User: Fold these one by one.
Assistant:
Number 1:
Amino acid sequence: MTPSVSSERRPDLDWIRVGAFFLLILYHVGMFYVPWDFHVKSPHPVEWLQPLMWLTNPWRLTLLFLVSGAATRFMADKLSAGDLAKARTARLLPPILLAVFVIVPPQTYYEIVEKLAYAGSFAEFYGKYVTASGHWRPGGEPLITPTYNHMWFVVYLFLYSLILAAALKWGRGVVATLDRGVERVLDGWGLLVWPVLVLVVLRATLFPMFEVTHALIDDWYNHAVSFGVFLLGFLIAKSEVLKARFIALRWPALLLAMASYGAYAALGWFLPDTDEITTGEIARQTAFALDQWFAIAAVLGFGGKHLTRGGPVLTYLTLGVFPFYIVHQTFIVVAGHYLARLGLNQALEAAILVAGTFAACFATYELVRRVNLLRPLFGLKPLVAAEHVDRADAAQVNRGTV
């Protein structure tokens, strides 16, 4: 069996990545209001937001890792393993360092201001932040600094890319064999059944032992899922056979995702919070895993069917999502902290926070894309000359950003 592969970059995956990042921004705005732990919180939590947050919670980041694996495949097929590692290092490491030492510190500062009533200046705080001498314990847990907070996704993506590059150094010849194997395994309804089975098993075995921490060294359930779908995205990226199967099963996947979400949300709403392994909690976690893959399959199916065109808007947004991702959470934390003190109507406050966050993201991108010194810090390649901005940006879409 010879896999049917596409050598061109897929606009559906680029649109999906843009949409997933925009959902992530809205999700983090929601974290300011929903009654869950976050760096800063609205003094008026909104209980009914929880089902809306659960709507994307199981699959949003898993989808991003899958699409990032696909983007890496298009790069890897054009580069040697060493060049792939160098390219990912140049693209991902500078933004990580920028985030740790510039972007993220305000998040930690306002967190301890709100949770610990910290009265020191930001300058005083920053000295303790970079030297790990603050010894802050919001919620009773030690706050480790310096830290990467929301940039954990990029840290993990960087690690996975280096592991993949090392594997390609010695095993690039087996990629075509693995491509064919994945096409055989995901034949027919296997496209929905087998990934779900794996996710259910991981949720039942690793998740109770390793909660999601984003702390890199002890996050084994999260690594199993995220690295697994990253590799899956790498293997299915160019398969026209699997693209057609996702399209064919898009409606069943959507209906199954809706049913799984309904079960997950209902169980989460009515079951009491507990750390015990109860029948209800087992059912809830199973519904989470079902929704996780069925929603991804539906997104890939409808995206493959309808998101078939590129163009200047996609070019612009594909390059912009990485700068958006870098700055969005810091703006939400800082703006949310001050907006909450103005006593505004909450709906107006939320609208300002959403609009302000997107405005800050677009403003940052517009600045960064024009300043060669800043571009590498936000995941964009430097430009040879300013007059080539649009041409270079369009070319970079074929390489992806994250």
Note: Residues 28 and 329 are 7 Å apart (CA to CA).
Number 2:
Amino acid sequence: MPARELVVLGTSSAVPTRTRNHSGHLLRWDGAGLLVDPGEGTQRQMLLAGVSASDVDVVALTHEHGDHVLGLPGVLQRRAMDGLTTPVPLVFPAAAAPLVGHLLGAAAHAGSLALPCPVEGDGPVRGPDGDPLVVGGAVLHAVALDHRVPACAYRLVEPDGRRMLRERLTARGVRGPDVGVLQREGRLRTAYGVVALEEVSEHRPGQVVAVVEDTRWCEGALRAAGGADLLVCEATFADAEEELAGPYGHLTARQAGRIARESGARRLVLTHFSSRYPDVSPLLAQAREEHDDVVAAVDLERVAVPSRR
């Protein structure tokens, strides 16, 4: 199966550092790519991370602040320079439409290589054709957050399926192409009688990845993170600066850990660190006091989506 992983393109907040670029995260999911928040310099970060413009199938903007969107024209123009002519769906909060229009007019070809998909409120994102937007077989959802401007989180939700049980298939004489027929049709006539799909398989819950960027503590963040196998969450501040988090519309690393714990998320990836922290290990330690499985994202590294339980 193709990789399900997060490619970290940028982990800084408003001000980049020598080692951390502006925000940028590419989720690789079964051969498709969801690029969330291409901040300034994302095109170069993609090059360094071994990601090509053709790896991006959908772009999603969490909100309109520059550190999350200023790399968009460059990424789209790079697609044109690479000879790609298929426009990609561009998802963003509806209130950010004026800025998105400016971004799409900022570089040659950028506007013709994006299909705007504005979202309002919670629910499945609708693609250009009006149907739910699918990335690698999983449906993209938006959840409203509480920031200084309209913002949303994104959830990539894989539908539940069935896990085929080899021993039961063998016992019922189902093998080879017949397995596919049974999966498609739900029933199969064999020398042993009629076999129902439920008899030789078990329920397989779909996986979920959530990206919660700029927000203060809110119910939307908890809903977005709910049950996620991989939660990418902003952790702008440490405990010592907690009084800044709410007014600036951000989270502390400890709050990110609490969101992961209270929402039942499995693996937490911290990102969006303030430039005041050249060393983010204290933030990682604070989040780990709230949740067991925590990773501090590092530019250009990759984080695997945990395998199914």
Note: The chain has a mean pLDDT of 96.
Number 3:
Amino acid sequence: MARTSEGLAADVHDRLRAEIADRAGALWEVALRLHADPEYAFAEHRAAALLTGELEEAGFAVERGVAGMPTAFTAISGRGRPAVALLLEYDALPGLGHACGHNLIAAAGLGAALALNSVLGDSAGRVVAVGTPAEEGGGGKVLEVEAGVFDGVDAALMFHPGVYDWARAPLTAQVQYRVAFHGRAAHPTGSPTEGVDALAALIELFNVLNLVGRRLPEASHIQGIVTAGGTATNIVPEYAEGLFGLRAATTRALEDLTGQLHTCAEGVALATGTRAEVERATLLYEHFRDSGVLSERFAGHLSRAGIALTPPVPGVHLGSSDIGNVSARVPAIHPFVAIMDDGSDHTPEFAAAAASPRARDVLVAVTEALACTAADVLSHADLRAEAWARHPQTGP
């Protein structure tokens, strides 16, 4: 009697779980090695070497230096379409180490890719492990998207450790802008009318933006700091500069907010007799677009480990990530899985949690769920078609 497609899928899932169980100790060792040796944006040389070494040894075709970044890489098993990408993050936070748990993200993506390669081989399509540097402010995935790394990919899968068990990530769009005011230096007592105070203009911009902030929509805000404000108290500052972080619920709303920043800066310059310069200081992170059909698959597989994912709490946003730019191009998932129950990431407590026994259990569970979800994408044309049909952009 012929086996049903459901039976074949269940067999593949069981084999993937067994493969990951056999690799659990080795994957945890990778996570701990990354945790003990944190590296920062675009300088994750030892992390990239460790991960690419594991993939190369397993027979993946590894390309280093992807998208012009020395610590970015792709590792490919199989060929053609369908294709699924597993995203590995491995940068840390200066002064806090792996307080965002990227050591676990890297180990989970690695383990899922290795298991898929071992169980499916070249038969099902293409598995791409993508090394993505500098998520913490550098935007490695943005550069990879622009370089075409995700072209020809049917789904991009990753998870993120956190303090919630949420099926999808409420991640906002964000960008930073540098605003500079140019005035004219003078002695504040001897020639007070000759000076044009650039710092006073910058301070006025903060005041105006504070008023603007009172009527911004939910999830939109502007946070600024002074990065240059003069050199001495007896010189009217001829130059002042601020750095402003802008966030909004959607990429379009962020573009509107950027326009308001330009308008406010130009208005202040006109009122104060200064000249304003507004320039983007970082890559733009788009908001995250969740693939509901794939997130549901992941949540179903993860539930076997006793971890139940729920929708995010309305109105709560958990920052921004360059996975948003990937999700604008291909169906993507970015669930949060808790490794501690209270507090926040980007803290010493979360860094400790990323090397805890609970983190080890979560690592094994999410690696299984990622591998099984990826296998479903590769094996089921109807699932791929539904994911693309519900994706906000044009299909493949």
Note: The longest strand covers residues 173-182.
Number 4:
Amino acid sequence: MSSSSGQRSGGLLAVHAHPDDETLATGSLLATWAAAGRPVTLVTCTRGERGEVIGAALAHLEGDGPALAAHRETELAAATAALGVTDHHLLDTLPGWTGGRLEDSGMAWADEGRRAVAAPDAVAAGTAFSVRPLDELAAPLAALLLDRRPDVVVTYEPGGGYGHPDHVRAHEVAHRAVELAALAGEPYEVPVVLWAAQGRTRAQAARRALRAVGADLGGLTAPADDDVFASVVVPDDEIALEVDVAPVRDAVLAALRAHATQVQGVEPVEGDAALVGRYALSLGLAEPVLPVEQYRVAVPDGLRGAREPLPDLGWPAGVRPVA
């Protein structure tokens, strides 16, 4: 039951589009929050049934939506266990949801794989998460917010990190749910809303470090020698919060390995100030695990600008606002 006082619980609630996103975008924050003994709730909006599949052993799952969805649920369970997250929900299983099963909308890679956009024919009309009515999707999440009373809600920035239509919709759903909870007519202290991000300086340094590894990338393709980044990368002065990755790195890498249909080449990196690990998605392009996981504070209408101040929430050790 929700608290009549409307007070926050000290908890964190993350809203993600597919299994694997919780680790790729926010794994260190989730693991750090959980390790501090604070409540962590994860809501996953779809089962990722239209995802690409890595490796011959599981290749038969690609294109078989129900089978891939079932398998990715097991991967998600293993990943959340590695991160220490025990309160996990699929959006279409929350109380109050009556719209049937929510499905992955699909996407297409573009720009040589450095960012993703939705192909016009990639949406499964009617059942896809990205095309369902916003308030219909947000209402059960708002009820969960009223019950859990988190200090912090975390999701993607308005561009969905790299353009996936389900990431964009998850961002919209998270924000609308916070609005609906505040309009529900009972005392409610609105949480801080964070967007997963990477500061440009760190992103550039990590890309250079991965290129320097060269042949030691284990068959992965080194990042391009350019300054093209997805929307998750922002000017440094927009970063408002950082999470130390080192204390939870092993948990994050274990969670990445749990998503074996989606993530490959997961390895720690030692002795490099620019990265503490690396991995790749289906295209085989090397991606860094940065030494800090970074976040922006939500700003009205997604407008870009200098970072917003953060309240003193008594952040867990390893989680620090940027001065």
Note: The radius of gyration is 19 Å.
